[in-house]
Design a protein that fits this description.
The complex is a heterodimer of chains A (351) and B (1070).
Chain A (H helix, E strand, L loop, with lengths): L4 E6 L4 E8 L4 E8 L5 H5 L7 E5 L3 E2 L18 E4 L1 E2 L12 H8 L2 E4 L3 H11 L2 E6 L7 H9 L6 H5 L5 E3 L5 E5 L5 H9 L3 E5 L5 H6 L4 E4 L10 H10 L4 E5 L1 H9 L3 E18 L4 E14 L5 E7 L5 E6 L4 E4 L14 H7 L1
Parallel strand pairs in A: 3-4, 4-6, 5-7, 6-8, 11-12, 11-13, 13-14, 14-19
Antiparallel strand pairs in A: 1-2, 1-9, 2-8, 3-9, 10-12, 15-16, 15-17, 17-18, 18-19
Chain B lengths: L8 E5 L11 H14 L4 E5 L15 E3 L5 H11 L3 E3 L4 H13 L2 H4 L3 E3 L3 H6 L3 H10 L7 E4 L2 H11 L3 E5 L9 E3 L2 H14 L5 E5 L5 E9 L5 E9 L12 E3 L6 H17 L4 E9 L6 E7 L4 H10 L3 H9 L26 E7 L20 E7 L2 H11 L10 H4 L3 H9 L5 H10 L4 H8 L3 H17 L9 H9 L4 H8 L3 H10 L5 E4 L13 E5 L13 E5 L10 H16 L3 E6 L14 E4 L4 H11 L3 E3 L4 H5 L2 H6 L4 E2 L3 H8 L1 H11 L6 E4 L2 H11 L3 E5 L9 E3 L2 H14 L5 E5 L4 E10 L3 E12 L9 E3 L6 H17 L3 E11 L2 E8 L6 H8 L3 H9 L12 E2 L6 E8 L17 E9 L2 H11 L10 E6 L1 H16 L3 E5 H9 L4 E4 L9 H6 L5 E5 L9 H11 L3 E3 L2 H13 L16
Parallel strand pairs in B: 1-2, 1-4, 2-3, 4-5, 18-21, 19-20, 19-22, 20-21, 22-23, 29-33, 36-37, 36-39, 37-38, 39-40
Antiparallel strand pairs in B: 6-9, 7-8, 7-9, 10-11, 10-13, 11-12, 12-15, 13-14, 15-16, 17-18, 24-27, 25-26, 25-27, 28-29, 28-31, 29-30, 30-34, 31-32, 34-35
Classes of the chains: A alpha/beta (351), B alpha/beta (1070).
């Protein structure tokens, strides 16, 4: 059977032709790449990729199949998935599905067989941009393509991945008020493993609602998009400052930063992968971390200090309030996917 | 922490001669380490007995000692140089063991030398079985459960604890004799009882079987601050059971989900943290394919073959970083030289697939047992990079230089399915092709996985290639479309590989490709999967659209490397390639290297200006040339691998620097070369090609015995023998014509004279001879396996004049531009030529170092148009050194079951050591010590078996050895002969005379030296062969040539000790 051809067209006009797989339909999204060599399933199901088209720089994807244990959320939130080669004969003792079948089931458009390195270099050089994957490139005029690319609006994207209703995960130890910006299940798993009781709230929860459950600490999770698109959450956190211990990861870290008076800025092409070195400034120790973000916290006010920095580009990877029990990290100590070298940060949060 | 300012002078110990299991990778790592230390303004003192290395170049260290790697000699160097620090772990296991010994014997303490980098205490934690077991217990890491038992009951008890199947390994038996796998109690009782009987110490090891588990390796680096990263993961395509050095290895690991990957990565880091490694470390795991169960197999706290592969696979220079860490730096303080932006404290991300395939020596050792197992047998390896597994594998296959361009091997096709099935179950060097053939015949893939234990991921990939091959057979050159052709090129198929399957010539496919504009592009190895812009131009080819290797418009030269290390083409050629590049760089010329050997200095990303990691086939080389358009291509430093491209490149109108292909042809073609010699009036041993036994006999009559006989179609002395009479000749010819009646046998007069050798540089007019080398053993032994002496000790001035004269005549007649190597025989005061190679040779590094003449630099400059005169060199022979240097060959035959050990016309050595002394005896003494040859003295025990032909000659030597206090053990004939002549001797039974016999005597460990002078080798049924094999397997020194023995005897008589000789820095020689 002849495979369906599909084309990726970027804002700058660059075109890549490959073969469509998964759930074949046209998609528009912000095109990013991740350099992780393992963990495609975790990447696929990471809600932080909502609204994006993700390119895997490692060429052989799908080798060990997919299973229902390594899901980072109930279903993929990304729009498109680009690989050089999609493995049609996966093997692993836990493998339950192949990549093509998985994408079909969850409605994700796949594109296979393009020069992913060339695409990565374009994103590196020109920065993150929008792109469209289409099977009807010849029928679309340039204007139509530009119109579709410009129509992309991810400002409300968190609505699609945050929980709609509050729910509780039982535990006997500390009680965490968990603001779900589109969390990876890995974070919940790590708190659960430490015996915590977790009350998970939607992203637009108010401070009062949180204080009502009388938690030991407030945690803000990872999530997709621009942190400044979440003024309600920032306000909520602002009004909690000084009243309770606050921690966060990734988007949560950025929200905390904004609530404390820091600024955020967009990186040219973000940090996506499992090989980023960050330094714990106090211990002068470097850790390899899992990262997935396009924005960073900057311009810290006097009462906030950087706790971790990125060894490669010097950007801030963690902050803490100098006098209040508030701390957060940009990278992902829960890993999944990626190195599990910084798991102790969960203990720091709970300490 | 920044650099430790207390470190001023560092001692680096090299790994010594190239042997199987310890090869060029340590030259690469060691050179990198020395340079990393030197560039910090710290003095480097290097000791390495191997002269063929780049690391022993005078420029690499401040003081270089090509001296024996023994504690005694190292102490002499330490006493003289007074280094303040020692870096262990740069010289393989040899270097590591020596560092430990220097520490244990308190020599480091005595001279105030600190061990920098990983400490001795840390090193020792992973060394022996017990400390390793304790370490694993402490770090909560699982290991393969095992225990030593001395009774069957204990074995049964232990097995019931760990579960069946178990492996039984008797202690101290050869090659695992008497061991086996037990599936149940009955089998275990039987095997154990047998094993206990065979074991010399009555012990067997019972080990849980993990057959079929995946074998995964991690390369880890840790600094003094405790920062720890993994550089690369690697997965063996062959499951546990085949030595990783004999496995096809892929990087990164392909079949591990993130959970398994991170589990093993964390385990590796935990172990390394626990023993506080400061530098690099390799951790090997076995992983159950059906669960998260794993076991740590071993750790190597040093640079290794795997670390070299990981460095080349990722672009991360492990040895360099390890050296910087030893100097005090932390990972986040060391810049990543590839990106120039990021730091060494990150984990490389790959966006390609790397495959390593071992290169085995079975083409040279056709009698060898080829079955792969837990002992490594490969002499070298190739690495290939592609953006799919298939592309990397196919590139890898054609990099091996086994005339194979796809997976369809003729030999496999001729095997029955049953035989193929057996072969894939008990893998040998042709397993990949047998497996492909099995799949081709429709044998079930699932079944292949079951019987081989290979992961279905890999088997499926091979099946995909096979299916593509079969599909291709339905096309012809006329029906193949651009789309189809591009698809095959994308999957890594070569033009020749395609041509063979569709039935046309490789050039037809090439032309079609050109017509369709299907040409490769080159992608960069940048450590970061494209995330950062890289500055280090290290490339591999793909058939994508976007090309990253943008050629410059500078003057540039392409140097073709020599491919994988093999018998006869070793590290020496890499030395030459690297030096040529260094010379070109000096003159501001852009340098490009094309090579596929991950172990070497030439493929270090900063050796040349641009590195292409590609197969050395006509197609792959031409593709790079078509992109780069170099001003010239240099072939003569890449051994036969590069030389054999000469005609092709000429036909493609590629400018070749140095001697022209026509002239190379003239030297290699027997008839053309004979004509030239005839014209010049230069003698060579008379000979002729014969087609029948009858013709052979009449030829023999005309020439007279002894005769040198060999098949005409092979190179490198393979199948060459000396026949002394008609019976031997007829036997040889009968066998030869039975094997192959389509080619003649060459019969030459054998001249048992003195062999001499020169490397010379010619500019077309003048000829510079750095030095003449004399072989210790008389003609008939391959030059690579002879002890070679410079300057010559027994050559008359008249003969030297003649050598110079003949060398000049031949070089000029062949219009040599650059290097030439000539081998002579001095027979009854007449000079004969036996071989001419219009290229650099094995002896170039050696002669360069001992004469101090930059041979390769001069040759390179000549290729660029300079003349000897313009560089200030006179025609003729250079002034002889005041020192004498003796090169001693090193063999790895103990690693290769059933391979002949005695010296002969076929080359068998894998490496060499050098002894440098103020006179011949001192140099030879050092050479023997460096080669670990036992010099028997003071009640030494010598086992002698001498053929009748040589008994008389032996007598005098035996008397001298006896006079030095040695005693003899001999079998029947030799014993009777010695006794008859008044030499006391103990008789050992021949093998046929029952037990205990001569083999038991050897294995008892009482013998210091074995002298076995055979009439001829290669008869695997003879007692002599078995004695020699036993010697090799028990690591007892063996001499098989009367000439080596005579020289050894003079050393025994001299009674030298290390105190009698001085260590000499190479910087003071020449």
């Amino acid at each position: 059977m002849d495979r369906v051809k599909a084309q990726l067209i970027l804002e700058n006009g660059a075109k890549f032709t490959g073969l469509a797989f998964g759930d074949i339909h046209d998609v528009v999204g912000e095109v990013v790449f991740t350099t992780g060599m393992t963990g495609y399933q975790e990447t696929l199901t990471d809600p932080s990729f909502a609204g994006q088209i993700v390119t895997m720089t490692y060429p052989l994807i799908g080798n060990y199949g997919l299973n229902f244990e390594d899901m980072e959320s109930k279903k993929p939130a990304l729009r498109g998935f680009i690989v050089r080669e999609c493995c049609d004969y996966p093997n692993n003792f836990r493998s339950e599905m192949d990549l093509d079948g998985f994408l079909k089931q969850y409605g994700v458009m796949g594109l296979e067989g393009i020069d992913t390195r060339a695409l990565t270099r374009i994103i590196r050089n020109y920065g993150v941009m929008n792109g469209i994957i289409t099977t009807e490139a010849d029928k679309l005029s340039d204007d139509e393509i530009q119109k579709r690319l410009a129509s992309l609006d991810n400002s409300k994207i968190i609505d699609t991945v945050s929980t709609k209703e509050k729910y509780v995960i039982d535990g006997r130890k500390q009680h965490i008020a968990f603001i779900d910006m589109g969390t990876k299940s890995g974070i919940l798993r790590d708190f659960k493993a430490r015996g915590c009781k977790i009350t998970v709230f939607p992203h637009d929860v108010s401070a009062d609602e949180i204080l009502e459950v009388n938690p030991d600490l407030v945690f803000i999770s990872n999530g997709p998009g621009d942190p400044t698109d979440n003024p309600e959450t920032i306000e909520t956190v602002k009004s909690l400052v000084g009243k309770i211990k606050i921690c966060g990861i990734c988007m949560g870290h950025q929200i905390i930063g904004l609530a404390l008076g820091c600024k955020t800025k967009k990186l040219k092409f973000g940090h996506h992968g499992g090989n980023h070195p960050v330094k714990n400034i106090e211990k002068n120790q470097v850790y390899i971390t899992s990262q997935n973000h396009n924005y960073v916290v900057c311009d810290l006010p006097d009462d906030v200090e950087a706790t971790y920095i990125n060894v490669n580009d010097g950007t801030i990877e963690g902050i803490a309030h100098k006098s209040l029990p508030i701390q957060s990290v940009q990278f992902h100590p829960e890993a999944s996917p990626g190195p599990i070298d910084t798991q102790a940060i969960f203990d720091d949060f709970l300490a | 922490m920044p650099k430790n300012k207390d470190i001023k002078k560092v001692l680096v110990i090299g790994s010594g001669p190239i042997v199987i299991g310890q090869a060029a990778e340590f030259d690469y790592s060691g050179t990198q380490a020395c340079r990393a230390i030197k560039e910090e303004g710290i003095e480097v003192v290097l000791v390495n007995s191997n002269p063929a290395t780049i690391m022993t170049d005078p420029e690499v260290a401040d003081a270089t000692y090509i001296e024996p790697l023994t504690v005694e000699f190292l102490e002499k160097v330490i006493a003289l140089e007074k280094p303040d620090s020692l870096i262990a772990g740069m010289g393989g296991q040899t270097g590591l063991n020596l560092a430990c010994e220097l520490y244990d014997r308190k020599i480091l303490e005595k001279y105030g030398v600190n061990v920098i980098g990983t400490s001795i205490a840390s090193i020792k934690e992973g060394e022996d079985r017990d400390s390793f077991k304790r370490l694993m217990e402490r770090t909560n890491q699982p290991i393969v459960e095992s225990d030593i038992v001395t009774t069957v009951d204990d074995a049964l008890k232990f097995a019931s604890e760990i579960g069946y199947p178990v492996i039984v390994r008797p202690a101290y038996t050869l090659g695992g004799t008497g061991g086996g796998i037990a599936e149940n109690e009955d089998e275990l009782a039987e095997i154990t009882s047998h094993g206990l009987h065979l074991s010399r110490v009555g012990q067997v090891l019972i080990e849980k079987s993990i057959k079929g588990w995946k074998e995964i390796e991690f390369e880890v680096i840790r600094d003094g601050q405790g920062n720890c990263i993994t550089v690369c993961s690697m997965e063996n395509v062959d499951p546990v059971g085949v030595h990783t050095g004999d496995s096809i290895v892929v990087a990164p690991a392909q079949t591990l989900a993130d959970r398994e990957y991170q589990m093993l990565r964390k385990a590796a880091i935990d172990i390394i943290n626990s023993i506080e490694i400061k530098g690099g470390c390799n951790v090997q795991f076995a992983l159950d394919p059906h669960s998260f169960n794993y076991a740590v197999i071993e750790i190597n706290p040093r640079v290794s073959r795997s670390s070299a592969l990981a460095s080349k696979a990722t672009g991360y220079p492990i040895a360099k970083i390890a050296a910087k860490i030893a100097l005090g730096y932390n990972l986040d303080e060391i810049l990543n030289a590839v990106t120039g932006k990021t730091y060494a404290c990150f984990e490389p991300a790959l966006d390609y697939c790397v495959i390593k395939i071992p290169k085995w020596p079975f083409d040279k050792f056709f009698g060898a047992k080829r079955q792969l197992g837990t002992k490594m047998m490969a002499t070298g390896e190739i690495m290939a990079i592609g953006n799919s597994f298939e592309a990397a594998l196919l590139k890898g296959v054609r990099s091996l230089e086994i005339k194979q361009y796809n997976l369809e091997l003729e030999a496999s096709k001729n095997r029955s399915t049953e035989v193929l099935k057996k072969h894939v179950q008990r893998p040998d060097d042709e397993r990949l092709f047998d497996l492909a053939e099995l799949l081709r015949r429709g044998y079930l893939m699932e079944k292949v996985c079951e019987i081989t234990g290979m992961d279905p991921f890999f088997v499926k990939k091979i099946q995909k290639i096979v299916r593509m091959e079969e599909e291709l057979k339905t096309y012809t050159i006329d029906t193949i479309t651009p789309e189809i052709l591009r698809e095959y090129k994308k999957k890594g198929f070569s033009d020749k590989g395609i041509a063979n399957l569709i039935g046309c010539g490789g050039d037809d496919v090439y032309k079609l490709r050109k017509k369709f504009n299907i040409i490769p592009v080159y992608k960069m190895v940048d450590t970061c999967a494209g995330e950062f812009e890289a500055v280090s131009p290290y490339y591999y080819s793909t058939y994508d659209e976007s090309n990253e290797a943008v050629p410059s418009d500078h003057k540039k030269v392409l140097v073709i490397g020599s491919g994988p290390i093999r018998i006869g083409q070793g590290i020496e050629f890499d030395y030459c390639s690297v030096h040529s590049v260094m010379a070109l760089k000096k003159f501001g010329i852009e340098t490009i290297i094309l090579n596929n050997n991950p172990e070497t200095v030439s493929t270090d990303f900063d050796t040349s200006d641009r590195l292409y990691f590609e197969p050395l086939t006509e197609e792959d080389v031409l593709s790079v040339i078509e992109l780069e358009k170099p001003d010239g291509v240099i072939l003569q430093f890449g051994g036969q691998t590069a030389i054999k491209l000469a005609n092709f490149l000429r036909d493609m109108k590629v400018p070749i620097y140095g001697t022209k292909p026509e002239q190379i042809d003239a030297a290699e073609d027997r008839e053309k070369f004979d004509e030239i010699l005839e014209e010049l009036g230069i003698a060579r041993p008379k000979g002729k090609a014969v087609w029948s036994i009858r013709e052979g006999k009449s030829q023999a009559e005309a020439l007279g015995y002894p005769l040198l006989v060999r098949p005409s179609y092979v190179l490198g002395g393979q199948g060459m023998e000396i026949t002394h009479n008609e019976e031997e000749l007829v036997s040889y010819l009968t066998h030869a014509f039975k094997n192959d009646n389509k080619n003649p046998v060459l019969i030459d007069r054998y001249l048992g004279g003195r062999e001499l050798e020169v490397d010379a540089i010619c500019d077309g007019k003048d000829v510079l001879i750095p030095g003449i080398m004399e072989h210790l053993e008389r003609a008939g032994i391959h030059s690579g396996d002879s002890v070679s002496i410079y300057p010559p000790q027994n050559v008359s001035d008249r003969m030297k004049e003649k050598i110079i004269d003949v060398t000049k005549k031949i070089s000029v007649a062949l219009k040599v531009i650059g290097m030439i190597n000539i081998q002579f025989i001095d027979f009854k005061d007449e000079l004969y030529i036996i071989e001419v190679n219009p290229r650099s040779s094995r002896t170039v590094p050696y002669i360069s170092k001992v004469t101090g003449i930059p041979v390769i630099e001069i040759a390179t400059r000549i290729m660029l148009g300079e003349t000897l005169e313009s560089m200030g060199y006179k025609s003729g022979i250079a002034k002889e050194s005041k020192y004498v240097a003796v090169k001693v060959p090193i063999f790895s035959t103990e690693k290769l079951p059933r391979v002949e050990v005695s010296l002969g016309p076929e080359m068998r050595s894998t490496g060499e050591v050098l002894g440098i002394g103020t006179d011949f005896k001192h140099a030879l003494y050092k050479g023997f010590v460096a080669a670990s040859t036992t010099i028997p003295r003071n009640h030494g025990t010598i086992l002698a078996t001498i053929c009748d032909h040589d008994k008389e000659e032996f007598l005098g030597i035996a008397k001298r050895l006896a006079a030095c206090g040695n005693r003899f053990i001999a079998t029947g004939g030799t014993a009777a002969f010695l006794r008859e002549h008044g030499i006391e001797v103990q008789v050992a039974k021949k093998i046929s005379e029952g037990v205990p016999n001569v083999l038991d005597v050897i294995r008892s460990g009482m013998i210091d030296l074995i002298i076995d002078i055979p009439k001829k080798g290669n008869n695997t049924n003879s007692d002599g062969f078995k004695i020699r094999r036993a010697a090799a397997e028990c690591s007892i020194s063996l001499l098989t040539s009367m000439d080596t023995l005579a020289a050894m005897t003079s050393i025994v008589e001299s009674n030298f000790t290390p105190d009698d000789v001085n260590v000499i820095a190479i910087q003071d020689v020449g």
